[in-house]
Amino acid sequence: MSSIATSNDPTQAANNADPLRLIDVDHVRFCVGNAKQAAFFYAMTFGFQVTQYSDLTTGDRQMARYFLHQGNIRFILETPLQPDHPANTELQKYGDGIKDIAYTVHDAEKAYERALKNGAVSAHEPETFSDENGTVTTASIRTYGRAVHTFVSRTGDYSLRELKHGGLFLPGWKRMDFVLNQYNKDNPCGLRYVDHCVGNVEEGKMNHWVDWYENVLEFKMFKHFDDADISTEHSALMSKVMASGNNLIKMPINEPAEGKKKSQILEYLEWHSNTPGIQHLALRTDDELASVAELRRRGVDFLQLPDTYYEKVWDRVNTMLTDHGHNPVKEDHEAIKKLGILVDADDEGYLLQLFTKPLQDRPTLFFEIISRQGSQSFGKGNFKALFEALELEQERRGNL
After folding, report:
1. Deepest of 141, 165, 181, 293, by most Cβ within 10 A of its Cβ?
2. Are residues 182 and 263 in the same domain?
């Protein structure tokens, strides 16, 4: 999803022919138990600006919602206000988590109709919000488990271009001056894009959802990892990475594989009411060391790797780079080790990445902080070390 910063505004008509041409990740919508408190958490720990809201004071009797942004990343945090709201059942069963990965398109209604024709199940029929300044049209389809994809098309003051420059998210929303906004401007975390979003599904269902993304959203296979790639002594999983036709949107899909003990996918499913869902969101930065250093300073909990990881990683990574005509990793090796950052390379370049621990008490959703220096892969060389670190955390939680 990383190159979306260069994508065209939806008001431009040159590429209107394909209804499922995805322009951007319009927003990521979280369902949380207390949106006001969650907004403070993501502002304080990850440096997001909290700039807009919709709640009882704006006339919304059903939901309290907050708009957060950083770079080209946009979050909506929402909490139900009425006891009989369906979102209360979701919160009770699944806890806080991501409900929706929404895509900007040229025409939300046409994208929705095309998806239904391709076999999608509707989650929400097209709805248009408008005032004298412009319109926003949304329509949603169901994907794995409780998750949905919403198509969003925008005009006038609500266009994607305007939204990126401080425009309102929807008609009726209000701007706010949040206490941490200036602090976060003065102490940036440097997160810029949604790089990819990973879903966990039940054993034996990965290929079903791969077919779904191919047929319904007209994605294609980008990468494939099997249990030989992603395994340890105790657990394993398989993963296939699906990408939109223009490679702007990437959605890896994981399923558990047979192992001696419980994999991280099985742990997720167990604590997610045995329902597929979004496991982690990868956020791109241009400077991994600066971003991780600032996030650590703010108290973000990251997975810890043993020092032995760095005894072998540089020979592996720099040999791969030089064999393919690339320069070695330019960042300071000792600083990378001190910050606990993982390094990997492929024939296109290298990447730096690090994973947080779960963002809430249930061991489900977490973030990945990633920087790409040419590499378009997902850290295959780090899988074993990463999963061993995850297993240590599972063991501490009593879930291995």
Report:
1. 141
2. no
At residue 243, the pLDDT reads 96
Reduced to 3 states (helix: H, G, I; strand: E, B; else coil), residue 116 is helix
Query: Rounded to an integer, what distance in angstroms lies between the CA atom of residue 337 and that of residue 311?
Result: 10
Q: What tens digit of pLDDT does each residue of 288-328 get?
A: 999 999 999 999 999 988 788 888 889 899 999 999 999 99
> What tokens appear for 30 in the block?
């979280």
The CATH code of the domain that includes 79 is: 3.10.180.10
Domain count, the chain: 2
Where in the sequence is the domain holding 285, given as residue range(s)? 191-397
In sequence order, what are the residues at sequence separation of 6 or more whose Cβ sits closer than 8 angstroms to the Cβ of residue 187? 47, 294
Question: Are 111 and 253 in a shared domain?
Answer: no
At 391, is the pLDDT very low, low, confident or very high (cuts 50, 70, 90)? Answer: low
b/e code 220-245 from CB counts within 10 Å (16+ = b): eebbebebebbbbebbbbbbbbbbbe
For 359, the token pair is: 């963002």
Q: What is the pLDDT of residue 396?
A: 77
What pLDDT sits at residue 229? 55
State both tokens at 376: 């378009």
What's the predicted TM-score (pTM) here? 0.91
What amino acid is encoded at 287 in this protein?
Answer: D
DSSP 62: S
Closest by CA to 367, choosing from 125, 6, 47, is 47
